[in-house]
Amino acid sequence: MRTTNRPIFLDILSIRLPIPGIVSILHRISGVLLFISLPLLLWLFSGTLNRADAFESYRAFVSHPLVKIGLLGLLWAYLHHSFAGIRFLLLDMHKGLELNTARATAKTVMALALLCTAVLGVWLW
After folding, report:
1. CB contact at 8 A, 84 and 23
2. What gap in Å lies between CA 69 and CA 6, rounded to an integer?
3. Burial track 40-56 (b if 16+ CB lie within 10 A, e otherwise)
4. pLDDT tens readout for residues 8-42
5. Distance between CA atoms of 47 and 61, rounded to whole angstroms?
6. Residue 82: HSE in the Cβ half-sphere, 13 Å Cα cutoff
7. CA dihedral 84, 80, 12, 92 (to 10 degrees)
């Protein structure tokens, strides 16, 4: 016999997270993405240090548009993870725990990460 009014079926798609929750989840996703991409990034960095012909094959690989889009995604992941990490460090120091401040800093993290990705992406493309 059920005595609580809890839902039997939880519709995940209808749940709306607040912006601080979205920033928190994206912080975790970006951290996992950066960790998984470490072998690729190390391979790319090693390609810049080898012989001249290895550098040319590296440049040919990196100049492909799909690779550029992937690297742009990794740039966003790095920037978002960094800005959100600073936000979480401040929250750990009990700075910005008020609801309005937490929402404002979460929006700032999202905007800064997207803006810096756009600026650096245009500059590096």
Report:
1. yes
2. 43
3. eeeebeebeeeeeeeee
4. 777 778 888 899 999 999 999 999 999 999 998 88
5. 10
6. 11
7. -10
